[in-house]
Amino acid sequence: MKIAANTFVAIDYCLTLDSGEEIDRSQAGQPLTFITGTGQIIPGLEKALTGMRTGDTAKVTVEAADAYGPIRE
Predict the structure, then answer these.
(1) Residue 46 in contact with residue 73, Cβ under 8 Å?
(2) What is the dihedral of CA 63, 65, 67, 70, to 10 degrees?
(3) First to last CA, the chain
(4) Alpha carbon distance 48, 69 (integer Å)
(5) Closest CA to 6 of 32, 43, 38
(6) 49 vs 21, 71, 72, CA distance in Å?
(7) What is the DSSP string of 49-60?
(8) Which of 9, 15, 53, 58 fits as disulfide partner to 24, beta carbons 3.0 to 4.6 Å?
(9) Which pLDDT tens digit goes with each residue over 25-63?
(10) What is the pTM of this model?
(11) Half-sphere exposure of 29 toward its Cβ, with a 13 Å CA cutoff?
């Protein structure tokens, strides 16, 4: 099944900084689940996943503006 609007999605993920430091990951047997198009995840990740299929893997880079907004110093 291809990921499109209003699709139930379950993903295993590992979140790293540009330095390679891991800061979060899904737990074994507990994938992140969401429905596309409902604002449940950051826009940049949802955009990157759109069109992927069950079993696909990807390395995704999401810029701050497509995640939680611009970096504030």
Answers:
(1) no
(2) 110
(3) 42
(4) 17
(5) 38
(6) 22, 23, 27
(7) HTT-BTT-----
(8) 15
(9) 999 999 999 999 999 999 999 999 999 999 999 999 998
(10) 0.83
(11) 0
Q: Is 71 helix (H, G, I), strand (E, B) or coil?
A: coil
Strand partners of residue 35: 8
State which H helix or E strand residue 16 sits in.
Answer: strand 14-16
- Count the Cβ atoms, other than its own, within 10 Å of residue 11: 17
- Select from 61, 62, 57 the least CA-distant residue to 43: 62
Kindly report the number of other CB atoms within 10 A of residue 55's CB atom.
Answer: 5
Q: By C-alpha distance, which of 54, 43, 42 is closest to 8?
A: 54
Whether the per-residue pLDDT at 68 is higher than 90: the answer is no
Q: How far apart are CA 27 and CA 61, in angstroms?
A: 21
CB neighbours (10 Å) of residue 46?
20
